[in-house]
Design brief:
The chain has 9 helices and 6 strands. By secondary structure, the chain is α/β, with parallel strands linked by helices. The protein has a 6-stranded parallel sheet with strand order 2-1-3-4-5-6, sandwiched between helices. Helix 5 links the parallel strand 5 and strand 6. It starts with 6 loop residues before the first strand and ends in a 9-residue tail after the last helix.
Length: about 210
């Protein structure tokens, strides 16, 4: 991420209305700033070379191929020391995942995600980590954590707030091996792939809020 207090973002979207909407969402976050926009590949490359943003967000709409063309154009334009952290918004994460990963993209988010989830995804991408998150599951009316034990809920809440295993161990007076076991069970029960996925799950289900990220 740049030295600036803001995470700089280049937004690529061929639809002017959705581009404006995404820019409004991202610019409304105090730690995020859209420094450039592009509606075609040539403009995207020029803006990327000029701005060197922390994160590039590409909205694919229903055309994943077009989005990947933009990604490939950026990849050809980048310098060896500044590969872009690119987050691609797609309708169907599972269907697009293999193709997107082959292009070197590390960030994939459902276009059905909330504005809060989009902002959280950009923050995660700015750290250089991978992010592959499917569309939010439908609300069944019950608590998303109802299948967890009370202790597993405690561990989950601390984990999604950025606590390490050692910190969780100290906070809950548990051995680190016990904490690791609880985390493994939580991941299995909730169908989570990693801690990043856990943060997004907690965010979209209002288990944690922006102040905790």
């Amino acid at each position: 991420m740049s030295v600036s207090a803001h995470i700089s973002i280049l937004l690529i979207d061929s639809h002017p209305i959705s581009l404006t909407g995404l820019r409004t969402i991202l610019d409304s976050c105090p730690d995020l700033r859209v420094v450039g926009v592009a509606m075609d590949d040539d403009t995207a490359v020029a803006r990327y070379q000029e701005l060197r943003p922390d994160v590039v967000v590409v909205n694919s709409h229903k055309d994943a191929t077009q989005a990947l063309d933009s990604v490939n154009a950026l990849s050809r334009a980048r310098s060896p020391l500044s590969a872009p952290n690119t987050l691609v918004l797609v309708d169907d994460v599972d269907a697009a995942m293999d193709r997107v990963l082959r292009c070197g993209v590390k960030g994939l988010l459902s276009s059905g995600s909330s504005s809060e989830e989009l902002a959280a995804a950009v923050r995660i991408m700015a750290t250089g980590r991978s992010l592959l998150i499917p569309r939010a599951r439908e609300d069944s009316g019950g608590s998303p954590l109802e299948q967890l034990t009370d202790r597993e809920v405690e561990v989950f809440r601390l984990m999604t707030r950025g606590y390490s295993n050692a910190e969780i161990s100290a906070e809950l007076s548990l051995s680190q091996s016990t904490v690791k076991s609880h985390i493994q069970k939580v991941m299995e029960k909730l169908g989570l792939r990693n801690r990043v996925h856990a943060v997004i799950f907690a965010y979209e289900n209002n288990i944690i809020h922006a102040s905790h990220l």
